[in-house]
Amino acid sequence: ILLENEQLKSENLTTRYDTLVSQINPHFFFNSLNSLSTLVRENDTKKALTYIDQLSYTFRYVLQNSQNMVAPLSEELKFVEAYGYQFKIRYADKLFFDIDIDEQYMDYTLPSLSLQPLIDNAVKHNSITSRRPLHVSIRTQDGELVVSNPKSPLVEPAQGTGIGLSNLNSRYELLTGESTEIIDTEESFTIKLPLGKP
């Protein structure tokens, strides 16, 4: 009976996790295709080809990690590089990712695709201009991954559902029993993600 209960618990966890992950994908794919179509219209072949390579990597990562519930930090950072490139094309010389990771944490783990909604959130809710470029900081501190950005509010605030952040916290609780920590002030937005030992 104990074995059956554990199996049911595991199956329930997997079903709930799959449901949460499925909320990510449509938004992600539509944004990516819109950015690619812009490059094609501009006839920038070199950037378009690089973009396709990065897009291919991000799609492959999403598909592979729909099966893997957790990923090493090193893999999530590679994903950030590929996914972030798409935004850098859209916001040329106005969006930067400042990454400062202690090497000892590279093999530590976190739920797959944890960083994707945080990048989306930063871009969606901030004005990104030549005068006020956006810097997204991704760093390790005391066994946690800390993602933060200064706030530069839009004239017309983006309507957010809060699904991305609540989804991320739900996945953390399901997989690790820990919660994310959000520090939201007038000047900046910061989220702390616990890292699991390898």
Compose a concise summary of this entry:
The protein is α+β, with helices and mostly antiparallel strands and 198 residues long. Helices cover 51% and strands 19% of the residues.
| Strand order in the sheet with the most strands | 2-4-5-7-6
The N- and C-terminal alpha carbons lie at a distance of 31 Å
Shape: globular
Instruction: Please tally the β strands and state the result.
Output: 7
If helices are DSSP runs of H or I spanning 4 or more residues, what is the number of helices?
A: 6
Radius of gyration, taken over Cα atoms and rounded to an integer in Å: 18 Å
SSE sequence, one letter per element: HHHEHEEHEEHEE
Please report which band the strand proportion falls in: under 5%, 5-15%, 15-25%, 25-35%, 35-45% or over 45%: 15-25%
Residue ranges: pLDDT <50 for 5 or more in a row? none
Query: Main beta sheet: strand number and arrangement?
Result: 5 strands, mixed
Quick check: average pLDDT?
Answer: 83
Q: Helix coverage percent of residues?
A: 40-55%
- What is the structural class? alpha+beta
